[in-house]
Amino acid sequence: MSIWRFGTYGVRAFDPETAHRLTIGALKTGLGPRVKADRYPSLKTEVAGLAVPNPLGLAAGFDKNAEVPDALLRMGFGFVEVGAVTPKPQPGNPRPRVFRLPREQAVINRYGFNNDGLDAIGGRLASRASRPGIVGINLGANKDSDDRTQDYVAGVKALSSHVAFCTVNVSSPNTPGLRALQDQASLKALLSDVMAAREGAVPIFLKVAPDLTDEDKADIAAVVLSSRVDGLIVSNTTIGGREDLSQHGDEKGGLSGRPLFAPSTAVLREFAKALGGKVPLIGVGGIASADDAYAKIKAGASLIQLYTALIYKGPDLVPDILAGLAERLAVDGFSSVADAVGAEA
């Protein structure tokens, strides 16, 4: 069996981080499935000026260093988000720092923005900028940064001409103090500087945490509207949800996978209501089937992303979700994804 079958056997025999590196290595050699991203006309959509062949994207964190974005696009994803990148290279937190929870189909990670840095990742993105396919970059801040706002500004200035979109990630739980940038005053100042720094009209997305109070959500919605951000990604991993886990409940880090689906979708609905369709939403968290993907869309997401479910279900999950989405749209009488966005309301 190919090492690429990380969804069943293969690399899952290794510890999670080694398995991750082996999978990236396999993709570099050309291994991996090839699926037409534009097979289903009803799945084509346009969001923030991006003509997307289908709404299913790969979330940031898988291809941290922009090593295999084109191989990932060939799997059938409508778009791929690489990173997170920080201005300076950093090793991240000590190992072990990622833990599988097979019973829950979940993962806890505390990687801590480990990446090769802006120069290396920027070079890789610049070298593929003329190729087809929508590739975006997730931007982070260095752990030891004296000015985290300027870390994001540096990323936008260096990369916005080489990518289809930039995501401002202020919601990782694994860089101390980073989530404080989600408070109203800090976020308003940060987004003002980032929007001024972008080259051309590259869309700027904001990625938020699911662990927000009602006041937090109201403040973020107000800032998003006033700053004219092009999209809101809901949500990152959660620091909650540990009470009923079968193992690793005492490990620090962000929890992703099935336990995140319900809380992240609830937050998505609240932002959909607060923003009233004025800002596109990208739904992330716990998607593991076509039903999950469709639920996010009907809750208000124009695009969706996944990552953790690939660990357990393998790459066949991508065409399964695309086929299932097209079928569900047809059954419900929708001619396009856009028609179904927010349908449950």
What percent of the residues sit in helical stretches (DSSP H or I)? 25-40%
* Mean pLDDT figure: 95
In angstroms, what is the radius of gyration? 18 Å
Number of helices: 11
CATH topology group: TIM Barrel
**Largest sheet: spatial strand order:** 3-4-7-8-9-10-12-13
Summarize the main sheet.
Answer: 8 strands, parallel, barrel
Name the features.
alpha/beta; 345 residues; 13 strands; TIM Barrel; disordered N terminus; 3-stranded antiparallel β-sheet
Report on the structure:
- 35% of the residues lie in helices and 16% in strands.
- By secondary structure, the protein is of the alpha/beta class.
- Strands 3-4-7-8-9-10-12-13 form an 8-stranded parallel beta barrel, surrounded by 5 helices.
- The longest helix is centred in the last third of the chain and has 18 residues, at 258-275.
- The radius of gyration is 18 Å and the shape is globular.
